[in-house]
Amino acid sequence: MAKFKNTDPNQLRMYVLEFKELFGEEHPIHGFKKVIDRLDFEDFEKNYQNDETGRPAISPKKVISALFYPILIGNISMRELCRLSKLRAELIYLLDGEELDHSFISKFRKTHRTEIEDLFSQTVFLGYESGYIDFETVSIDGTKIKANANPDDIGDLEKFELRLEQIEKVSKVKFQEWEKSADMDRSQIRDKRKELELKAEKLQDAVKFLKKHKDRRRVHLYERDCDLQKKGNVFLVGYNAQAAVDCKSNMIISHSVETNNPILSLRKKMITKSRILLRILKIRKNKI
């Protein structure tokens, strides 16, 4: 009878990653890393305050490399990116073995929002400097992006004033009921009070916002920038994203995310932004 190796697929194994062997000369990671190396990350440093105390942070360059690389392998969610940062060789290489988690990425993107947008401008300049982008023909198009937001939490001034009045009335009654209840301890009562107070606070903020911004017909309680968007025959809570694309390279050279501006107004805005960008790029190129 033939003999076969009796192996256990669940057995823990350790492998040595030889990156030179894994990534041949034609692998896209080499070109990607050259672009990343050309970007200036100096502005990120002002957001850190650990020069004298605190542990060393993960380099912004490494984090950005991991955030941008999925463009080459197919856009993935941030949670999937965190999972792959432990498994995918390219991400392990770009992060030097550091592992990402969702809360860290979320905080990083909020902290460095302006600096990340500037990196986008830098990539456009690199493309223009190399002749990859020529601005001869620029196409403008848009799409509606669904927000991760509850549709019930979007409304106009009248709706939110009514809800605020209702929740204030309900809160007084509930507070009295909870105080008299023998089935609830102090911590439970405190948590329930806090929940109602937070809802009232959000409604108050929305009412103040709509009174101040007369141009906004409605607003979402938690996502100020989103609005009702018509996509096909349905309405969704989301954003109106516009992009200007250079036809030679198919690179996005300018973008904008709006709420309720008319399409014609958005088109004019993107044309103006693209013209201003071209003038700036010409000035920068001449200086170099």
TrEMBL record:
Annotated coiled-coil positions are: 186-213
Record keywords:
Coiled coil
**What InterPro entries does the record point to?**
Transposase_InsH_N
Signal sequence residues: none
Q: Name one Pfam family in it.
A: DUF772
Keyword Zinc listed? The answer is no
**The keyword Nucleotide-binding belongs to this UniProt entry's keyword annotation:** no
Looking at the record, the residues that make up the Transposase InsH N-terminal domain are 18-110
Name of protein: Transposase PF05598 domain protein
**Species of the source:** Leptospira fainei serovar Hurstbridge str. BUT 6
